[in-house]
Structure formats: structure tokens, C-alpha cells
Amino acid sequence: MTLSTEIATLPQEAAREPSRPARPLPVAVISTLTVAAILGLWSLASAYALVSPVFLPSPRQVLLAAYNLAVKGFVDATLAEHVGASLYRIFGALAASIAIGVPAGIAIGTSRVGRGILDPIVEFLRPLPPLAYLPLVIIWVGIGEASKITVIALSMLPSIILSTSAGVRAVSKDHVNAARALGATKGQVLTQVVLPSAVPSILTGIRIALGAGWTTLVAAELVAASSGIGFMIQSAAQFLVTDIVIAGIVVIALIAILLETIARRIERRLVPWAAHR
Amino acid sequence: MSILTFRNVSLRYPQRAGNRPAGEASVLEGIDLQVASDELVAVIGRSGAGKTSLLNLAAGFIAPTTGTIAVDGVPIQGPGADRAVVFQDDALYPWLSARDNVAFPLKLKGIPAAERRERADRLLEKVGLAEAGDRPIWELSGGMRQRVGIARALAAEPRFLLLDEPLGALDALTRSRMQEFILRIKAESGAGAILITHSIDEALLIGTRIVVLSPNPGRLSAEIEAGFSAEILAGASVAAVKASPLFKRMQAGLTGLIHAAPDDEVAA
């Protein structure tokens, strides 16, 4: 091979080079394929009756059950009513736990006495599975809505308290000093500087609390309720209506994802500056 | 005319060796300093000489171990709006717009929203940021942020401006423009000022008086008057001032003074 032919081949190789790395599959495509594969295996398993339809109804049956749930309902209430009952509980509990948790977090984050009083309570509550204290709450508050809301609120409290106190403690010293040198009183430092700077942390705490609360809600409804998405599943299971059980589980998962997405949106809208600190 | 006075001020911290107290670490000793409304006292010195401690004492963020700090003869009790601070990393509130940052001290005073807005806009105009009022502060450049910080300090209508290396984080070009800006703003406001700086040039250009802080413990080791700021205010160009033989001589003199200080730091 002569030098000139070698040189002649060079630019061609160089031109081929950029197209060489294969474009990787986007994660969203991989995820979609995974879901499709699971649905496909599920259809196959039920179509060839590999598993008894009592245990595993076909995807079509589940879809039909979901449709019937939405239109006719199950155990005296439509799907919307069950979901409404559940959402009412979770947002009632969220309001209660924010009303208690944020001031408690501020007390822990700003005062030695506050920390001394509240820390042991939070540390006791935090590792407890909510269902462990559900029976006690039912004895104390009765079997109505109040007991469910109390249990859910208790399960949400630790993350709201801890994220608030962490946010309060992380306030920039310069931010506080600047306010003091501009004439702020102690109260003004708290309301005008410490609280606003803790908002991103509090919102993160609320998002985590929503996740914990949703888990507790379904569990609490399985144990003691006469409406709600967890109660619906429990009733369906007692009559071995597996398609409704599966439809209910899917609805629970979808709502959880929806809540998380909305919470993230709100965070971005409310504290766009958090990303620029 | 207001006067900020340091009288025989010292600042010491108790030290511990393991679990036992082991004497005191002395940050500042025997500081006597007076700053009047028509002055801008520039404090220079090496890192660790206690420059920022001196400013924190003046602001009231920390209390002196001995001695007193007073404004017009009244000893200060912690921070107050009569001594507004401009910080090196701006310390602006990211959850507020540029305008609301400037209006912050007015809000603290309970001034109604409409008046706050009007006064903040006037201050923003004064610092050359009339258009930036609605912008979030993270969109602003370092120099613009410091202008907002200075406008915020001015909104408190302080008797003294305490400037803690306000230009330390800026690039050279922005920095030299901001030096002239601070000089003019300070003269207009009628407030006295203390400027902490690393830069001898900066101290000479905008200080009416320059004090040298020498380390271990921090003491005022030299004090000289400088008239260059008056020349610039009277219309002389910064470049011409910097080129003058007197400026060069004082620059060399101050460099010598800073390096002549006892150097325990190197041994440590």
C-alpha cells in the first residue's frame, strides 16, 4: 500500500467515525417495554389458564372490573366515592399534621427547651409502624373517621417535624445577621427570614409525608372502615373477587404517583429559588 | 454628624486543650478607632488579622470581651438599623425579587406596601438597576447583586455602612467599576463607612483614612489619611489618580506596613 492510498482512505474513516456510537435507548422506552412485557406475560398466563382465573383474572377482566367499579360501584359506593373517602382522610390528616408539625419543627429547630421536650416524642413515634398504635387509637377515639385521620396524621408527623426543624436549622447565618443589622426584631427574623428559607425543606417533608400517609391510609382502611379504597379491596378479597382487588391495587398505585407528581409541581412553582441557592 | 467609636476594645475566645480550659485566644487587642459620618475608613491587613471580627463587633453580631463600642456616645446593644451591613456574598434573600430585597428594611419598619415599592424603586434607580426590580436575584450578576445589597443597606437609612469585603468575589473589571460606584453612593448617602478589604489599591482609592490591622493578636498598627477619594469625587479619573507618584508611594508604604507585621502565622 502506498502512502497516497493510505491518505486517500483517511478522510473516509474520519467521516464514518461520528455515527459509530449506537444511540442508547431512552429510559422511558425501556420502562414502557417492561410494562408491556409484564402485561403480555400476564395475558398469556391467563389466556392459557396457567393460573386459575380465581387467583389471576385476565387483564381484560380487570379492565372490565375497573369500568364496572367506576360506573356501578362495589359495596354500596362507586370507585369515585371510595377514592373520595380515602382522599378526604389523607388531606384531612395532612392539614392536621402540618398544623401541628410545622410549629413543632420550628420549636425543635430554634429552641433548646423545644428540642428537649419534643425530640424524645418524635424519636419514639418515628420508628413505630402506624398499625401498631391503630388499636390504641381506636380505643381512644372510636371507630369513626377521627381514628383513621389520627393514625394517618401520626404517621405523617415525624417527617414534617424533622424536615421543618432541619430547614430551620439550615438557615444561612448571613441571612439572619443581615436582617438583624437592618433592624429586624427576633420575631421578624423568624417570620421574614427563617421560615421562608425553610419552605423548600418543609415541602420536601410534606411530599415524603404524603407517601407515608397513603401507605398508612390503605392499611388502616383494610383494618377498620366502611368506605375507602382500602376497604373496597378488603371486601372484594373476602368475596374472592380478584379482578376488583387487582383493579383497586392499580388505582392505589396510580393515585400515589399522581400525588407525588402534583407535590413536585407545587414545589417547583412555589420555591423556584431552591435550585439556585 | 455621627461618630462610631471603639474604645480599648478587645476580643478573646476561651481555648480548650482536650477537655480542660487552656487560656484564651486573643483575636483583637486594644482597638481604639473613631469613624465620623464624612469618613470612609478602610481596614486592611492579612487574612486572619481580625478584619471581619472588627466589622462584626461594629455591627453588634458579637460583643467585645473588654472595652466599648458606641454610636454618638451611646454604647451599642447588638445589631441595629443604624449600622447596615453589606456582606461579601451579598446575603440577599433568594425568595424575594430584587425590589423586595431592597424594600426589606422598609417592611420591617411597617411602611405600607405602596410607599415601600416607590422608595425601593428610587433606590434601585440610584444604583443603576431601575429595570431589574422584578427579577429574581439569582438571575443577577455578582456586581448587580452587590448593588442590590448596597441599595438594601441604604434603604435602612443607616448612620454607618459596614462593608465586609463587598467586592471580594467580583472579577477585576467589575470590581474597579464598583469601587467608584461605592465611593459616590457613600458620599451621597451622608453615612459614615467602614470598609474591610484585601486590596491596598481599593483602600487608597475609596478610603478617606486607612488603618492597618496586624495579626496575633489583631492591633491597629498604622493609620494614614488619604485624599484620593476626594480627588475622584472632584472629577479626577481613577487611572490618573493611580498613576500619580503619591499614590505609588503610599501603595508601597502600605505594602511595607502590612508585611512588617510580626509573622507568627507562618510558624503556626
Question: What does the model show?
Answer:
Chain A is an all-alpha fold and 277 residues long. Chain A has a single domain, classed as MetI-like fold (Orthogonal Bundle), CATH 1.10.3720.10. Chain A has 11 helices and no strands. Chain A has helices spanning 3-16, 27-47, 59-71, 79-110, 112-125, 130-141, 145-169, 173-181, 186-223, 229-238, 242-270. In chain A, helix 4 (79-110) packs parallel to helix 7 (145-169), helix 8 packs across helix 9 and helix 10 (229-238) runs antiparallel to helix 11. The mean pLDDT of chain A is 87. By secondary structure, chain B is of the alpha/beta class. Chain B has 2 domains: 3-82 and 166-267, 3-Layer(aba) Sandwich (Rossmann fold), CATH 3.40.50; 92-157, no CATH class. Chain B is built from 10 helices and 10 strands. Chain B has helices spanning 51-59, 98-108, 113-126, 142-155, 172-189, 200-206, 228-233, 238-243, 245-260, 264-267; strands at residues 3-17, 20-36, 40-44, 66-71, 74-75, 83-86, 160-164, 192-196, 209-214, 219-225. Chain B has a 6-stranded mixed beta sheet with strand order 6-7-8-3-9-10, with helices on both faces. A 4-stranded antiparallel beta sheet of chain B has the order 2-1-4-5, covered by helices on one side. The termini of chain B are far apart. The chains are: A mainly alpha (277), B alpha/beta (268). The interface between A and B is medium-sized, with 23 and 28 residues.
Protein traits:
heterodimer; A: 277 residues; mainly alpha; MetI-like fold; 11 helices; 78% helix; 0% strand; globular; B: 268 residues; alpha/beta; Rossmann fold; 6-stranded mixed beta sheet; 10 strands; 27% strand
User: How many strands, which pairing sense, and closed or not: the largest β-sheet of chain B?
Assistant: 6 strands, mixed
Structural class of chain A: mainly alpha
CATH homologous superfamily annotation of chain A: MetI-like
Our estimate of the beta-strand percent of chain A is: under 5%
N/C terminus separation of chain A: 62 Å
Cross-sheet strand order for the largest sheet of chain B: 6-7-8-3-9-10
Write down the domain tally of chain B: 2
The DSSP helix count of chain A reads: 11
Number of DSSP strand runs of chain A:
0
Q: What's the mean pLDDT score of chain B? A: 88
Low-confidence blocks of residues of chain A? none
Q: What order do the SSEs of chain A take from the amino end to the carboxyl end, as H and E?
A: HHHHHHHHHHH
Q: Globular, elongated, flat, extended or rod-shaped: what is the shape of chain B?
A: globular
Helix fraction of chain B by DSSP (H/I, runs of at least 4): 25-40%
Indicate the CATH class of chain A: Mainly Alpha
Percentage beta strand of chain B: 25-35%
According to CATH, the fold-level topology of chain A is MetI-like fold
Mean pLDDT of chain A equals 87
Put simply, the count of helices of chain B is 10
Give the proportion of residues in helices of chain A: over 70%
